Amino acid sequence: MNAGSSAGCWWPGPCSRSPWRFASGIDTHFWLLGDQIRDWGIALRPFHELPLVGPATHVGGYTIGPVYYWIMWAIRVVVGPFFDNLPHAGGIGQAVLESAADALLLTALWRRTQSVWMAVAAAIVVVTSAFDVALSAIDWTPPIASALGKTAIALALLDWHRTSALGVGVIAALAWSGVHVYTGVVFVTAGVLAALIVDPLARRDWRAARRNATIVTLVVLALQIPYLVHRLRHDSSGPAMGTVTSGVWRVLSGDAAPEFAKSLAGYAGAFNYIQVEPWHTPWPLWGLVVCAAIVAVRYRRDPAIAAMVLLPQALAIAGYALFLDTLDHYYYIPVMPVTVLTACFALAVPARSRAGRLIGIALCLAAAALVPSRLTLAATMHRLPEYRVLVEASRTIAAAHPSVRAIRTEFTLPPSTDPEFLHRILGGRVDPNAPRAALIQADGSVRYVEGDL
Q1: Which residue from 64, 158, 169, 387 puts its CA 20 to 30 A from 14's CA?
Q2: What's the rounded Cα separation, in Å, for the pair 390 and 441?
Q3: DSSP state, 25?
């Protein structure tokens, strides 16, 4: 797994100096690992040279479409010039996208629950998850897929799909684009697409149901055209996510049994790690189960809510039971905001009454009280403080010796971090025939060596 971090937040306090969600300090500790180097390098290309499929995955294959690279390319074009096209520009752009998704979700929850306090409480819990904070400003697929999923859910909660066919298309496109970015968001996507269809069915609006189903189908097919073109051009690349689908076929063919116990344990572990840390207790998980039951009963006449907040969780547990490999916490990043929405809709009391306002305010204060410990934990996760040194030294090398034989560091970097990457972005060249090689010192200074290092 490649992960990243940043230090700021939108919550009032010491970290409020940054206008972007958790982007403060990103230029000093950006987590520059192999995935970030690969994907930012691709985003630096002209648009027509971008791949027609998504990034390679650690379990084999690749995601089923190019939307992630389209997003990163757009960030590079808009944000990159302000930061010399260095990769932390992508982290800042990602933080902006997540901020917009969070703000939209806050607005949608406010409207649906009729309580600004309940909406703010839920938003605080979603936004200040320590793991989410640590990953919120890095060029990486799960956080961006999560942002797309949250945006699609928010627009559905705002009833965009009831206003026009365009609204249906936008929601469907955002939801399916998330699958292009990161396959683990497919459970949230399924819930959103189901909501677009079951909502008019519950209202007995058969015409709208047919229209929505048709639009969803057409949007999905249109977004899969790049993948089909890729397969026609590069048939030898094999199907997307081949390793995952092979595991599913093994279960369906009877060669292996679904691993529901492992999946339940993985879901519980991810919930505790992403939403509960830094505490260690099983009670929040049981509370989630109770909240899910309340939502199922309370919104039985509003199946769209159940589809968006309950269905993704059930599908994640069932889906990962078919995944015959080790489960990691980050697989569940796109699903975790849905767990908070489950609690929000279960506990929501309209703020029209005094009791409703008091309950909302109490929950908001309780959520706010958790913030300092969560941000303290986030500040210890997934950082590369050497990034600042690499940036300063790369600028020095590019200005003094645009062409060097090699660039190495006297300090240890993660194995997948290439110390020459930033130098190339800044216009420098690495030429095996150049007379000098550069050695970056721990304080950011550079020592030049004649010949090889």
Answers
A1: 387
A2: 9
A3: T
Q: How far is CA 233 from CA 227, 228, 230, 239, in A?
A: 10, 9, 5, 13
299-321: pLDDT as tens digits: 999 999 999 999 999 999 999 99
Is residue 91 within 8 Å of 134, Cβ to Cβ? no
Question: Which strands sit side by side in the sheet containing 436-440, from one edge to the other?
Answer: 407-409, 436-440, 446-450
pTM higher than 0.85, yes or no?
yes
Statement: residue 9 has pLDDT above 60: no
**How deeply is 389 buried, as exposed, middle or buried, from its count of CB atoms within 10 A (0-12, 13-18, 19+)?**
buried
3 state SS of 429:
strand
Q: Are 174 and 151 in contact (CB under 8 A)?
A: yes
Could you tell me the two tokens for 286?
A: 């049981």
State residue 357's pLDDT score. 86
Q: Name the DSSP letter for residue 11.
A: S
Please, which residues have CB within 8 angstroms of residue 237's CB and are 6 or more apart in sequence?
53, 62, 230, 231
The span from the CA of 222 to the CA of 271, in Å, is 34
| Percent helix, percent strand, percent coil in the chain, to nearest 5 | 65, 5, 30
Our measurement of the distance from residue 348's CA atom to the centroid of its chain's CA atoms, rounded to an integer in Å, reads 26
